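Students often ask why inverse folding is considered easier than folding. One informal answer: many sequences map to the same fold, so there is more than one right answer. In these notes we will look at a single instance of the problem. The structure comes first.
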């Protein structure tokens, strides 16, 4: 086992000198010789795309012109069209046509293609290309390079960065307004990462002082980035071309220019990193709710059988689950022990969720509106944030992280060229502007192009180097545990569930109270009446209190402990390495870089010779025989090994125990199971997963051989418009239904429609570009209406209401494209990540008498009888057929009732004043690379 990395691996003298030389730069402000151009070994075979466009800033005049006349600022939406077009254009795709749908991601800007050159300092230039306006940052010093990155981030994402630093600090309502969605979002996020300023400063110092030379350099780079961002902040304010949202939210007066954009600090980077980690890089948690659902199962079936049934749905290691490492290699982690110790199950009926919000006043009590009087010319912008800037449940702690990312990588042995091919990218939702921003960074010790999360873009986080490319998918392995701290009273009195002291190693210890007081008043953008409230959490040495309960009759507080808490930005070291051409030279050094990333991610790599995969994360080394799926008693014997609460450090699993591989025939990932015995952190990884949509297609391509960039992109694109239920579960449904002749005319017609749709590929794709009609609209409508009905009819009678409700609270039954889920709420693109498809598939096969590995604890459909199961399915099918389109697709602010295509469509969630229309649904990465390196250094 290893401790949390507190220093880099020991460097040889030669390596240390090489590192120092690569990072050495003149003092800030001084010029230096122009560095030689970076060699690009991709030779035009690297491409990428990030809709809607590189430019995410708009002045007040541009926002007003957009809302009145429909105009768009330059480069605000010019990648949206190519991205959308792939859904119709992929069947005829060739390598030569890839740049019709993706950008050329070569290094630099070709001669004659520079639209502008900005020189914010003598030692850096920011060149933007004519076609897409992407910043290409080239520095002659390290400081200048990072300063330029921060300056460019301000040019492209100033408002977004400001918005998200306030989310990270739990101050969204005070900054953007008191809309109910804003209140809900900060109430979900802040308890997951509650910090005071001193906590953020401590994290900066931890990186600076414990991570060796790279840690010091990382914080210098971060400061240079912040300096560049602040330089643009001041320049745009003085020049009156700052984002117009500052006027609309009352920060700056449009006429006098009085007001302020608050300076950025390096601690804002930590707050921003906590948001990124909270959205995409965490895993585990939710053990209290898991315990409650286990209790319901035990109450239904008795302890032994109830536990067996619950475990079958929890599916920690489903043998039928699609896996990224498919060669059978085992990587045991977070499994169920044979005889668990220290489990802290709550007493029945004792659990209470910890109160968060206190002292509501004004608009926080009533949600009343009090619109300000707007100048006539600004009336079109009135109330644009009344529904909040982001969905209220963006950070919902339900054990189901919002859908993120896929990867398809094929080894050299199976490609046409003899070089590996990769199509991969993060599925980070659809925002306007995007959370990610494109950039190229070239400077001392840095050579990369790709994307970074706005505000923490010191380095490219997903992209390509000189002769290699990398990407990630959210892994979500269990790095968060729940402990039950026994409550006490300092004077020795009898504790209650509301006590604010707890036992730590036998000592009655006070909880630390953290508070955040937010107040707002109505603005032109958000007309919510003036109001305020106070958020409060209690923090212990074992984490933040989430629930109160009793265990074995004693009052306890359940607390959540995440291994990356107090370490929100430690991953900066790994990203620094990935950008360093003197460090990453092959698959082995890529893996070493990824080891330094504490977020829970699956990392993929390709160069001209090799492919590789590595699962990163700060995986805690738990005490022996602890069940990580359930709450644990907060006693020293059950703590993480070598746990030290001051900095939240502990022993971590060695890198060799993380799932990893080099040159497997192919890799796929769509947030599926990583490898054999690598236990899942929550419900939902079962026999049917959206990863199956990729795995079957890529396996077929690989077996055939001769894979190209185009053919691998086609596999991704076809999966992106396919209904998982229609491809993977409908065949079993139809087997049951067809087990006897279907004599009812209405049912027979519906079955025929579903069969035709399934035979045609079960797609949800328009018949031609711009048609906005599906080829099998009735079958799609029937499937959407039928699925929730059939799942309930299949499982609820046998389970009973209490258990069914408890398990569906753990895992929703469906995630169709038209449902309101995903990072951006409705119209989110990402679909079919979490649902009961695998459970239904296993149960139906069991009823049909077909083989099932990892069967459910019971047969449910028709109590295991085929005829009764068939009757239940046909009865619900009849109900589904009767549901009209305007009921299945009820409409919203963007779509009229009954508009099936629009209900599915992707719509970018406006975080500012610029909006975008709907595009064809695609279940694919937001930012995506297509790469094939023909050469290597």
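Output (designed amino acids):
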């Amino acid at each position: 086992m290893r401790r949390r990395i507190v220093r880099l691996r020991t460097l040889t003298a030669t390596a240390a000198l090489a590192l120092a030389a690569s990072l050495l730069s003149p003092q800030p402000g001084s010029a230096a010789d122009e560095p030689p151009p970076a060699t690009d070994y991709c030779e035009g075979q690297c491409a990428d795309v990030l809709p809607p466009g590189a430019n995410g800033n708009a002045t007040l005049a541009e926002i007003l012109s957009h809302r009145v006349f429909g105009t768009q600022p330059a480069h605000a939406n010019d990648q949206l069209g190519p991205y959308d077009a792939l859904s119709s254009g992929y069947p005829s795709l060739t390598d030569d046509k890839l740049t019709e749908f993706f950008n050329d991601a070569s290094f630099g800007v070709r001669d004659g293609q520079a639209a502008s050159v900005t020189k914010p300092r003598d030692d850096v230039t920011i060149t933007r290309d004519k076609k897409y306006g992407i910043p290409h940052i080239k520095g002659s010093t390290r400081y200048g390079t990072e300063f330029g990155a921060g300056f460019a981030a301000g040019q492209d994402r100033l408002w977004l960065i400001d918005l998200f630093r306030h989310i990270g600090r739990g101050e969204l309502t005070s900054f953007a307004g008191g809309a109910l969605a804003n209140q809900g979002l900060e109430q979900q996020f802040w308890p997951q990462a509650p910090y005071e300023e001193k906590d953020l400063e401590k994290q900066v110092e931890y990186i600076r002082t414990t991570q060796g030379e790279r840690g010091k350099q990382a914080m210098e780079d971060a400061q240079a980035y912040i300096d560049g961002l602040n330089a643009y902040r001041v320049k745009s304010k003085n020049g009156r071309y700052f984002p117009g949202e500052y006027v609309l939210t009352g920060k700056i007066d449009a006429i006098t220019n009085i007001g302020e954009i608050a300076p950025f600090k390096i601690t804002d980077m930590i707050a921003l990193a906590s948001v990124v980690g909270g959205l995409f890089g965490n895993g585990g948690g939710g053990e209290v709710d898991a315990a409650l659902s286990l209790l319901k199962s035990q109450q239904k079936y008795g302890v032994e059988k109830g536990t067996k049934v619950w475990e079958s749905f929890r599916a920690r290691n489903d043998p039928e689950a699609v896996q990224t490492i498919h060669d059978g290699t085992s990587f045991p982690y977070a499994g169920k022990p044979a005889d668990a110790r220290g489990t802290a199950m709550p007493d029945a009926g004792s659990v209470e969720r910890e109160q968060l919000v206190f002292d509501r006043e004004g608009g926080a009590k009533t949600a009343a509106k009090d619109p300000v009087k707007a100048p006539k010319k600004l009336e079109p912008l009135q109330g644009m944030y009344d529904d909040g800037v982001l969905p209220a449940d963006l950070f919902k702690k339900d054990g189901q992280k919002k859908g993120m990312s896929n990867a398809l990588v094929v080894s050299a042995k199976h490609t046409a060229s003899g070089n590996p091919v990769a199509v991969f990218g993060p599925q980070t939702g659809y925002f306007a502007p995007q959370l990610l921003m494109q950039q190229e960074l070239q400077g001392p010790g840095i050579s990369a192009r790709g994307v970074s999360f706005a505000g923490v873009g010191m380095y490219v986080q997903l992209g390509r180097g000189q002769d290699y490319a990398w990407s990630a998918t959210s892994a979500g392995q269990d790095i968060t545990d729940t402990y039950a701290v026994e409550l006490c009273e300092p004077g020795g009195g009898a504790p209650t569930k509301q006590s604010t002291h707890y036992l730590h190693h036998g000592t009655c210890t006070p909880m630390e109270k953290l508070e955040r007081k937010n107040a707002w008043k109505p603005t032109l953008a958000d007309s919510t009446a003036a109001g305020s409230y106070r958020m409060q959490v209690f923090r212990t040495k074992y984490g933040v209190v989430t629930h109160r309960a009793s265990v074995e009759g004693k009052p306890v507080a359940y607390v959540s402990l995440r291994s990356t808490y107090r370490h929100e930005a430690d991953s900066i070291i790994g990203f620094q390495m990935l950008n360093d051409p003197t460090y990453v030279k092959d698959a082995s050094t890529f893996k070493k870089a990824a080891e330094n990333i504490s977020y829970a991610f699956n990392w993929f790599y390709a160069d001209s010779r090799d492919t590789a995969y590595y699962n990163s994360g700060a995986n805690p080394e738990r005490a022996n025989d602890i069940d990580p799926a359930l709450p644990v008693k907060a006693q020293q014997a059950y703590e993480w090994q070598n746990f030290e609460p001051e900095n939240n450090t502990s022993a971590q699993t060695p890198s060799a125990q993380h799932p990893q591989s080099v040159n497997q025939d192919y890799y796929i990932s769509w947030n599926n199971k990583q490898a054999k015995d690598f236990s899942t952190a929550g419900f939902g990884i079962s026999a049917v997963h959206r990863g199956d949509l990729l795995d079957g297609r890529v396996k077929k391509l690989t077996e055939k051989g001769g894979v190209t960039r185009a053919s691998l992109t086609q596999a991704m694109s076809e999966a992106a418009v396919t209904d998982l239920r229609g491809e993977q579960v409908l065949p079993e449904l139809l087997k049951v239904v067809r087990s006897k002749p279907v004599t009812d005319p209405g049912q027979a017609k519906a079955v025929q429609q579903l069969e035709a749709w399934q035979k045609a590929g079960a797609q949800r794709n328009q018949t031609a570009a711009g048609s906005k009609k599906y080829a099998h609209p009735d079958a799609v409508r029937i499937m959407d209406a039928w699925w929730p009905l059939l799942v309930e009819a299949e499982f609820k009678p046998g389970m009973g209401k209490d258990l069914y409700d408890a398990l569906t609270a753990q895992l929703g039954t469906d995630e169709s494209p038209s449902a309101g889920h995903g990072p951006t709420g409705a119209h989110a693109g990402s679909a079919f990540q979490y649902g009961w498809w695998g459970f239904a598939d296993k149960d139906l096969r069991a009823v049909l008498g077909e083989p099932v590995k990892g069967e459910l604890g019971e047969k449910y459909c028709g109590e295991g009888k085929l005829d009764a199961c068939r009757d239940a399915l046909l009865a619900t099918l009849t109900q589904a057929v009767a549901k009209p389109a305007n009921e299945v697709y009820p409409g919203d602010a963007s779509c009229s009732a009954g508009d099936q295509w629009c209900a599915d469509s992707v719509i970018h969630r406006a975080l500012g004043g610029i909006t975008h229309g709907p595009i064809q649904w695609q279940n694919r990465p937001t930012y995506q690379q297509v790469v094939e390196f023909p050469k290597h250094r």
